[in-house]
Amino acid sequence: VFPWFGLDIGGTLVKLVYFEPKDITAEEEEEEVENLKSIRKYLTSNVAYGSTGIRDVHLELRDLTLCGRKGNLHFIRFPTHDMPAFIQMGSEKHFSSLHTTLCATGGGAYKFEQDFRTMGDLELCKLDELDCLIKGVLYIDSVGFNGHSECYYFENPTDAERCQKLPFNLENPYPLLLVNIGSGVSILAVYSKENYKRVTGTSLGGGTFFGLCCLLTGCSTFEEALEMASHGDSTKVDKLVRDIYGGDYERFGLPGWAVASSFGNMMSKEKRESVSKEDLAKATLITITNNIGSIARMCALNENINRVVFVGNFLRINTISMRLLAYALDYWSKGQLKALFLEHEGYFGAVGALLELLDSA
Amino acid sequence: GGSLTKLAYYSTVQHKVARVRSFDHSGKDIENEPLYEISVQEEITARLHFIKFENTYIETCLDFIKDHLVNTETKVIKATGGGAYKFKDLIEKKLGLKVDKEDVMTCLIKGCNFVLRNIPHEVFAYQRDSDTEFRFQTNHPNIFPYLLVNIGSGVSIVKVETEDKFEWIGGSSIGGGTFWGLGALLTKTKKFDELLQLASKGQHTNVDMLVKDVYGGAYQTLGLSGNLIASSFGKSTTADKEFSKEDMAKSLLHMISNDIGQLACLYAKLHNLDKIYFGGFFIRGHPVTMRTITYSINFFSKGEVQALFLRHEGYLGAIGAFLKGAEQDNPNQYSWGENYAGSSGLMSTSPDVYPMQRTRSGTFDMLEMDRLERPLVNLPLLKDPSTYIPDTVDLTDDAMARKYWLTCFEEALDGVAKRAAASQPDSGDALERAEKFRQKYWNKLQTLRQQPFAYGTLTVRSLLDTREHCLNEFNFPDPYSKVKQKENGIALKCFQSVIESLDSLGWEERQFALVKGLLAGNVFDWGAKAVSDVLESEPQFGFEEAKSKLQERPWLEDSYSQWLQRLKEGPPHKCALIFADNSGIDIILGVFPFVRELLSRGTEVILACNSGPALNDVTYSESLIVAERIAAMDTVIHSALRDEKLLLVQTGSSSPCLDLSRLDQGLAALVRERNTDLVIIEGMGRAIHTNYYAVLKCESLKLAVIKNSWLADRLGGKIFSVIFKYEVPCQ
C-alpha cells in the first residue's frame, strides 16, 4: 500500500525518504484516493517545503525497482524543531486515512511517538537507528547512484595539489568501521549484514561544531558556519607544534604543522583580539573533525579494521572535513587506514526505515 | 612551567643524633654507674628539596638559589619546561650558571618513576562521593608498565616500559589550552582557575543535547542513559538564545574531560595497560577536573581502568631535570623518605571548600625527601607485596577514628614537648625549641583535621612518624634516651632472677610464663598515654605489677593453645625473626628470655630493632649493648651470639610502627639466607596499628597489650586486653 515513506528523526535534522512510483497503471490511478495523489504531487513538484524543508534533488535515485515497483526515491530534510508542524500537516492532509504504516527511526521516533498518536492519529512503527543505518548503507551502495558509484575516497589525501575524489568499489564491504556523524557521533564495527556492534560514540559531533560556531560567531545556520569556516585560518587560533618547539618535535616524531593545542592561542588576550569570526569557525571545524578522525582511527586499530566509512549530515557540503578526515587517517596510520565516503551522507537511516517497511509488508 | 617555577635541589643537612656507647666497666663500681654513655653528635645527611615559586616572583626564586648555592663546583643548572627558554638569559646572568635545557617529557617521566618508587601513597584515585575524596594506593613493587597522560595545553599520551624506555604513543590537541582558550572566548573570563570555578557552578544540561533530548528518555536498545551527552553544545545551535557563562564553562569542561578520558581508554586498550596516571596543569590538584576525568575513564572503560593521580605531580619535571643533572651520584641508587615535617602536603584546591589553603598552595608549596642510609626493600616473607597495606585503620576513611586519634595526639602533645625539653637539661634553648616543635606539630595536626589526605592515607603510623620528624627538625633526636638508659639498667639487674624462676618451671608452665613475660614487658610503653601516666606517677611500677594488670585468659585474641600445640608437636623452627618494641623490661625481661628459649630449641633468631630512635623503642645500637651485657650473664645467649645463631640487625626504620615493605636490605638478605620460618611482631605500634592483617608466607605471631581504652573498646575489649595472634599460612 502506498505511500512508501522512511523517516529518521535525529537530534537536529529529520530525514525523510519518499518512493514515488512511476509505474502506476490506469487501474491503480482510478482507485487511488485523492489524499494520496495530493501528497505525491506536493512532494514531487516542490523542492522546498515551508520555510525549512528541503528536497535534495541532486541525490534523487531514478528508475529504481523496489518490491517489484519502479519509481524514483526522493530525499527530503527539515529541522527537528519543526516536527510539530510536520505532524500538524500530516493531520491536515488526513494521512491517517491512508491506513499505511509510517516507519520511523532515530531518537525522535521515540520522543514524538505520543505526538504522532494524539495530534496525527498515527501509530509509528519504531525502528532501531543503527539497524536502519546499516541496512540503508548496504542497500544504497548495492543499487549505486544513478549509474555512478555511491562510495568514494580521496586519492593522495596528503597532497593538496594532487588530491582528487575517486569512486570506490565497496563490493566486499566487511569488515568495516562505520562512523555516523550527526549531532553526535556513533561508531559501529560491521562484520556482516546482521553482525555489527556499536564500538563507541562521542558527543563531539556536528552539533558541537554548529553549536560552538553559533556561540563564537553569531551565525545561525550550518551552511553559514561552513561558509565562514571556508574563509578562515585556524592556525591563528590553534597552537601548533611549531609554535611551541620552533619546528618539528623530533623526540616524538611530531611534525611542526600538527595542532598541539586546539584554541591554544586563545589563552592570550592579544591573540583573542586579533582573530576573525572566520578563523574561529575554521578552528572549530578542524578541532571537531580531527578529533573524530582520531577516535575513529583508534577504534579501527582496536577492532583491527582498515576501512572506515564516514556518513552523516555533518559531512553535507563539507569538503573541508572530508578531505581532512581522509588526510588524517592516512597520515597518522602511515597509509594503513582508508577513509571512505558515501554520496547520500545522512539519509541511510531513513532509507533503512523504508526498507523495513517493505520487508514487513 | 607556564605559571610556576618548580625548583629541585640537593643539600646536606646537619642535625643532631643520639649515640650510645658502652663504658669500659673494668674495675669500676658497676652498681652505681649508668649502663652506657649517651652522647649527642652532629651528623650530616642528604636531603632533596622541592619548592614552588610563582613565576611573577622569579627574581625571588633566583635570589633563593643564589643564597643556597654553597657548592662552587656547580657550573650548570638543568632546566625544563617552556620557561627554560623564556628565563634562560635572566637565570644565566643572575646566577652565573649555564642553563642546560632538558627535554620536557624525558624529565617528566624520570620524575614520575622517582616518586612512584620512593614515596608511599604517592598515587591516588579520586572519589567524589566519599567523606575524603582521595583514595591512596599501595605502591606496587613493579611500577612498569604504565600510561602517563599529560594534559597541558594539549594532551600527550606516553607509554613507559622501563626506567629509560618510553614512547609517545599518541595525543590530542583538545586539552587544557582548549578549555582555557575556548573558555575565554565563550565566557570572557581570562583566568584558568576562574574558568574552573565557573564550570563548577554551571549546569551543562542547558547547553548540551542529552540522549533524552533526542529520545525523550534512554536509548534502551544500547543501554545508554537518558542523561548521557549526545552532542556537546548541541543546544546552543541557535543565534537567538543567551547561555550563562557557568553553563557553557561546565559543558566545555565535560566535553574536554570526556574526550581525553575516551582517548586514554582507547590507547590503554590498544597497548593492554591498566594503570593510567594523569598529570599536567589541567589536572594539578583541581578536584573539578579530577572528578570529570575519573568519571570519563569509568564510563569508557566500563570500570576496568582506574584514573590515577599523583600527589607530587607538579614537581615531576623539576625532579626529572634534577636527576638528569645528578647522574654521577645517581639518586636512584638510594632509598628516599618523605619528610613530613618539611613537606607542605597535598592541599585541596577546591575553591568552595578551603579558600585559605588554596592561596597558600598557589604561592608556596614544598616537599623534602631524606636520603636513607641504606636501601629499603620488601620483607621477602610477605605473601603478596602488591596488596600489602601496613596500616590497620585508614583514618582518612574512618572519620570517628580520625577524630579520636587527632585529639589523642593533641592531648599528648604538651607532655611530649615537656619531655623533649627535659631530655636536654644542659641546652640553653631546649625550652624554646620544644615550644617550636609543639607549634609545628600542632599545626600539622590542624592541617590534617581539615585535609586528612595531605600526606597520603592518614594513619596512626603517619601521625607518629610526623611527630618524630618534627622532633628531629628541632634537634630532639632522642627525648627518651635517659629513660631508656635507666630502664635498661634496672631491667638488666633483674634478668638473672627472671631466668632462674623460668628455669625452675616445667616445660608447659614455662612456655606460658614466657609469653606472659613478653606481654607484661610490652606494658612498658611511654608512647601510650595510659601507661606513661602510671610510669610518671609510680616510679616503683615493675614487672610483677605489669603482669597483674594483664587480662586473664581467654584473651581478646587468643590462639595460645594452637601455639603451644605447635611447639609441642612440630619440629623446632629453623629461624625466627623478631621485631622488638620497647627498651628496658620489654626487651630484657620479655624478649630475651623468649629468645633464649627459642635458641635452646635449636631455632636461630634474628632480632630486629629500629635503626633510629622513636619514643622508648629499643634501637639497634642499644640492643647491641643490652645483648652484650646479657651474654656476660648467660651462657645460652653468649654462645648463640658467638656462633651467630643469634643475630642482631637493624630494621632501617625510625618509626614506632612497622612497614614490612620498607625494610633494610641487609635484614631481608639475612631472612632469606637463614630460611626464616617464623616471624614474631611485638607491640601495639607494630602488631596492631600496623600489620594486624598482614599476611605472611610463614608462621607468625603477633602479640601486644592494648594500652588505649578507645582502641580496646573498638576491638571489643578493655584496656590491658591481650592480643595473641598465631597464624599459619594456608597451603
From TrEMBL, chain A:
EC number(s) recorded for this UniProt protein: 2.7.1.33
Organism domain of life: Eukaryota
GO molecular function: ATP binding; pantothenate kinase activity
Catalytically driven reaction(s): (R)-pantothenate + ATP = (R)-4'-phosphopantothenate + ADP + H(+)
Subcellular location: Cytoplasm
Pathway: Cofactor biosynthesis; coenzyme A biosynthesis; CoA from (R)-pantothenate: step 1/5
GO BP of this protein: coenzyme A biosynthetic process
Pfam family, one: Fumble
Main enzyme class: transferase
Major subcellular site: cytoplasm
Keywords annotated in UniProt: ATP-binding, Coenzyme A biosynthesis, Cytoplasm, Kinase, Nucleotide-binding, Phosphoprotein, Transferase
This protein's GO CC annotations: cytosol; nucleus
Stated family: Belongs to the type II pantothenate kinase family.
Family matches, as NCBIfam families: panK_eukar (TIGR00555)
Subunit note: Homodimer.
Protein name: pantothenate kinase
Organism of this sequence: Acanthisitta chloris (rifleman)
Lineage: Eukaryota, Metazoa, Chordata, Craniata, Vertebrata
UniProtKB/TrEMBL annotation, chain B:
Protein name, UniProt field: 4'-phosphopantetheine phosphatase
Domain of life: Eukaryota
Cofactor: Ni(2+); Mn(2+)
Function: Phosphatase which shows a preference for 4'-phosphopantetheine and its oxidatively damaged forms (sulfonate or S-sulfonate), providing strong indirect evidence that the phosphatase activity pre-empts damage in the coenzyme A (CoA) pathway. Hydrolyzing excess 4'-phosphopantetheine could constitute a directed overflow mechanism to prevent its oxidation to the S-sulfonate, sulfonate, or other forms. Hydrolyzing 4'-phosphopantetheine sulfonate or S-sulfonate would forestall their conversion to inactive forms of CoA and acyl carrier protein.
UniProt-listed InterPro entries: ARMT-1-like_metal-bd_sf, ARMT1-like_metal-bd, At2g17340_3_helix_bundle, ATPase_NBD, PanK_long, Type_II_PanK
Organism: Acanthisitta chloris
One matching Pfam family: Fumble
Subunit structure: Homodimer. Interacts with PKM.
PANTHER family per record: 4'-PHOSPHOPANTETHEINE PHOSPHATASE, PANTOTHENATE KINASE
Similarity comment text for this entry: In the N-terminal section; belongs to the type II pantothenate kinase family.
Localization of this protein: Cytoplasm
Gene Ontology MF annotations: ATP binding; hydrolase activity; metal ion binding; pantothenate kinase activity
Catalytic activity from the UniProt record: (R)-4'-phosphopantetheine + H2O = (R)-pantetheine + phosphate; (R)-4'-phospho-S-sulfopantetheine + H2O = (R)-S-sulfopantetheine + phosphate; (R)-4'-phosphopantetheine sulfonate + H2O = (R)-pantetheine sulfonate + phosphate
GO cellular-component term (any): nucleus
One of the GO BP terms on file: coenzyme A biosynthetic process
Keywords (A to Z) from UniProt: Acetylation, ATP-binding, Coenzyme A biosynthesis, Cytoplasm, Hydrolase, Kinase, Manganese, Metal-binding, Nickel, Nitration, Nucleotide-binding, Phosphoprotein, Transferase
Span of domain Damage-control phosphatase ARMT1-like metal-binding: 408-717
